[in-house]
Structure formats: C-alpha cells, structure tokens
Amino acid sequence: MTNLTTFGLSDEQQMFRETVGRMAQEKIAPRAADIDESGDFPWDIVELFREYGLMGVAMPEEYGGGGADLLTFCIAVEEVAKVCATSSLIIAAQHLGAMPILIAGNKEQKQRYLPAVAQGDRLSAFGLTEPEAGSDAGGTKTRAVRDGDEYVLTGSKVFITNGGLAKTMVVFASTDPSLGTRGISAFIVELDQPGVSVGRIENKMGIRGSQTAQLLFDNVRVKASNRLGQEGEGFKIAMRTLDRTRPGIAAQALGIAQGALDVAVDYLYQRQQFGTPLSQFEGLQFMVADMQTQVEASRQLLYRAAEIIESAGFESHATPEVTRYSAMAKLMCSDTAMRVTTDAVQLLGGYGYIRDYPVERMMRDAKITQIYEGTNQIQRLVIFRNMNHGGV
Hints:
The chain has helices at residues 11-38, 43-52, 70-81, 85-104, 107-118, 234-270, 282-312, 320-347, 359-368, 376-385; strands spanning 124-127, 143-147, 150-161, 168-174, 184-190, 196-201, 212-223, 227-228, 272-273, 276-277. By secondary structure, it is α+β, with helices and mostly antiparallel strands. The protein starts with 10 loop residues before the first helix and ends in a 7-residue tail after the last helix. The model has no long low-confidence stretch (mean pLDDT 94).
C-alpha cells in the first residue's frame, strides 16, 4: 500500500485517519462488491458509522455531532472511499443535508433538527436540482406559496441522494419567480408527511448502493418557522452550503483514486510477465509515478482548501478565496480520480475489466464526482470568476 504523507496533520488527526482506515479495511471493504452488485442501500454501514460517530463527525458537539473540523471530516470520507465510494457518500450526504441548517438556521431550528441528523437517527437530503434546474438554479420551478403561517410547496426535485430514505431535507423553492435566483427560498421539510412521494429511483452507473431518487411535492404544508433565513435568501444559502460541502466530494474522489492506486501497485508487484514482475517494467513505473504525483498534488490542494474554508466558519459569508479553493479542490480531485482509475484498469489489463477486481467499480464510481455538486465545467467558471484580477 502506498504510504500517505502526514504533512500538516496533527497527531490526533493522524490517529483518526488510522482508526477510520482500519475500520474501513476490516468492516467495509468485504461488503463493497456486494453493495455495488445488489444496489441496495447499506443500512448496516449506517449503523457502523453511528457506532464510530461518523454520521455527524463535523457537526457541532452542542447538537450531538463530533465537533471535528473540515479537514478531519475530509479524512473520514477519504479513508472510507478508498474501499467503497457508496459508503463514503453516506457521510458526505449527511453533511450536505445538515449544512444549510448549520449555515442559516436559527438556534431553535438547529436544536430541533440537527441532533437526529448528527446521530444518524434520521438521514438528511439536499433538494436543489430539478429537471430544468441543474447547473441553472434560476430555472427552479418548485413553488412555495405563503398561506398564513405556512407555505404550500408544489413541484419536484431530481437526482436526490438519499431520496426516499431521508426524513429531513432542505428544499429550495421559488417564493417569487419574477426574481430568478433572488426569489428562491430555503425550507426544512420533514419528508414523512402527506403530499411527499417518491418518483423514479435511478439505476446508476456507479455508487450503486446510494439511493438517488425523484421526490414529488403535492401541496405540502411547511410551517413558516421552517424557512431558513428570509425569503429570497435560498440561493445564497445553497451556494454557501456547496462551498463547505464540495471538499467532501473532493475527498471522496481522492479516496477512490488512492484506493485504485493501491490496488494497481499491489497487482504490479504480484503479477509476472516474461518471468519478471510487472513492477520492473519501466513504462508501467512511469504510469504509476504519474498516478502517485496526481493523487498527492490533489491531496495537498484539498487539505489546504479545508483549512481555508474552516477558518471562515459556518456562519460567515463566503469570500472569493473560500469559493475558489472549494471549487479547485473538487475539480482537481475528481479529474484525478477519473484519470487514475482509468489507468488502474489499464494496468490490470483484462483483470481490470472484470468484477473480480475492484478497479472497474472504482472507475465507475469516480465518474460521478466530476458531475454532482456542480459539474467540473461549472467549477471552472466558479474558479475564474473568483480569481483576483486586480479589481477587474
């Protein structure tokens, strides 16, 4: 297994990495192929994460979380993703669903909803994407119409991680369509209530054990006290959320890449051709050297991004630096994951193409990291727009 650099990690963080890594290797790795094959959501892994305190590892202690910083959270996701991307997404999705409440919720909202999410008693979800509103949030069609001390929610959301499983979800809906993104508001919605139903459950290329579904809202009544912030602040809340959660997807991608690299290196030392271990062939050494360099460069960028974002705090407004580093980490780590897993399949030859070896699964899992929580094309726009151009 490739040695990981410990530069910049505290002793506590390094010990945490070793603990989560050992748990993942012993208890999750043996389940990974079955989870992928069946496509069933792994509730046993949720219980495992509850036992280890990982469901809300980076949520504040006062709300039942682990109180860890963003870098420690990324380490947890990375270590799990080395063996099972689906399982790592359980941690990342729980973090995503809670983040709008952490960012914009008042004390009463946080006390009411976060403990159950932090403890893993209720899965959470984030509801922004719609059939006509993916990268273009201004196209949001879901409506929230005020009716006394309630709002009536009507519309649909697609590609929702934990859709049909989550019980608590932040839904972004338009309270004033004439204002575009400035007319979007955010609401905490309890999904086990009348009017909420599950539409299509997607049959996916990768992360197959994570349930991705369409959710339908038919005159769902939501108390006005469940609105996050003021009317029209939803888009800003969503963007600030993604600034803090994209590093989790970067960490997932990084873990996938590292896992594939580890498998490939082990294979090269064990497999022989022409009476010589594959690890002795210079052309293959060059491929592995490039893979290692890309993985380590991605790790350093991600860890730096986590430090910058953490220093900004939950409740502060996003700065261009925070937004830029979040996007750069997600972009670089996910592109690295796609390159490294593709090369890992190539290094294993015919064995890389069959399901007896995990690299083909890792390659399929890696692809989504370039797409969700903002496609990498969008990340490039975000990075450029948040660069310092001397006031231009």
